[in-house]
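Q: Joint fold for the lines below.
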Amino acid sequence: MAVPIRRRAADIIAFLFATAATAFGLLWLFWILWTTLREGAAALTPRLFTEMTPPPGSSGGLLNAFYGSAVMILLGLVVGTPIGVAAGTYLAEHGRHTRAAAVISFVNDILLSAPSIVIGLFVYELVVVSAGHFSGYAGAVALGIILLPIVVRTTEESLRLVPDQMREAGFALGLPRWRVTWQIIYKAGLSAILTGILLGVARIAGETAPLLFTALNNQFWSSSLNAPLANVPVVIFQYAMSPYDEWHTLAWAGAFVLTAFVLILNILVRLLARKGISK
Amino acid sequence: MNATLAHKSGTGATPWKSGASADRVFHFITASAAWFVLILLGAIALSMAWGGRLAFKTFGWRFITSSEWDAVAGHFGALVPIYGTIVTSAIALIIAVPVSIGIALFLTDIAPRWSRGPIAIAIELLAAIPSIIYGMWGLFVFAPFMAAHVEPWLNDHLGNKTLIGPLFSGPSIGIGMLTAGIVLGIMVIPFIAAVSRDVFNAVPTALKESAVALGSTRWEILSRLTLPYTRSAIIGAVFLGLGRALGETMAVTFVLGNAHDLSASLLMPSNSIAAAIANEFTEADTDLYRSSLIALAFLLFVVTLIVLTIAKLLLLRMNRQFGRTH
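A: Joint structure:
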């Protein structure tokens, strides 16, 4: 049965279009990664991890920025994870089928995609203005707020996947609800929740906009969280925008380390998650 | 708080008093955390409105209709950043929507089965790359590429056409609305493609098989079955991408040029709401200047909320249609 030539032509065009679209999408990924790899690998030196960010026109490292980013990500986790897991638990367990949970789940999805720069301004108004100065604390709060909806969403989805029979089995043993959640549901959903949190870390590690008005930046070594704190994304931003070659090189080095961290975390988490499912 | 009304657990039968009160504590903690999310969204909106009140009071409607942004004279009209935000987001969608639908089609119907997972992950990685990396790549690699190869061509071939000519004529400097729009388009592709792929996969196999049995080609299945069937979810995905594009900051800041002039040409530098805030907020030295930038953030936040709400509602409708919950 021969298909008329016009219909077949349309089909082939659709086939080519879809293939080209995918190639187009992948092209950008490889182009961006290739640029980062080429420029970044050339800029990688041991001094990157041992020296501070330099003044204009001289070379140095990014040690203070790596330190500041690590501390703020950890603190952001401390802020965002407990609230997020608790809220996700409410949406999936204790508040299940309530109108409030439906509304909050909806709002959480919107918060998930809200512009991060607005969250930066919010924390500026809330923390920086009242403290009178930029600080690492403010940066950590901003990152925590960005992490929060991610953790809520993953927790809710992970717990929803736990079969109801497990809850019923727990209740049948006479366990109170909180112990069912704590000792049975959390155990079953743990790896999925951890996966989500790690993906959240990958996300906040690269966030720049919310740190611009909160942690700002600091050219010198400072371990005080109550003062402006150097961090990788803002250093990349300032150095890339500057007219100095040495700073551009350092920005590429920072970009390379950041991209490698984010991508490796993403891929590892996905591989682990898949392994967990196939087991 | 009426959250306690939600308490419908099956633990009423437990004989242990301590268990019941611990239950109430646990319930209270989780409910408070959930309400915190709701309050947070309200607090962000309120704090932006409060911070921007000085600008709104001083300029009124002129704040969004005037294109004069003069920090020295203390006059702030946001028409240029608003225009730049809309134009760059529009370019982004024009690029991203067809490409994303093509990718979704490729991943659901065309690609060999073994390659679908890796390709899908690669496309998702586009969303994982931090936006500052897009910005740097845009500034150092893509903008020069546009200036050297694409924009001269546009100037020569489209710049002299009657209707669209003004859009594509101007100096080939690489930095501008077209470059920013393309970078934004790349950034939203993974979001639209992921949702499209999911809903394409959710089209009932029986329907597809019926179409095949009737002799339909792949193109006919897409255009007459899959797209009409998934229309509302696809529109939802587009709105989701729009919400992302409107608020994207760092990538745009690098390649848009931070210029406060209104120009018809897509090749000219411009500004966007998010880029203006990122560039100028730490330098804003008067209360009115700061308030104007926060007022911009308020506008951005409200518009993004509306766009994302529409997106969610459309996607929810699709989920309900398929009887899924997520």
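Q: Anything notable?
A: The CA atoms of residues 23 and 106 of chain A lie 34 Å apart. Chain A touches chain B through 102 residues (CB under 8 Å).
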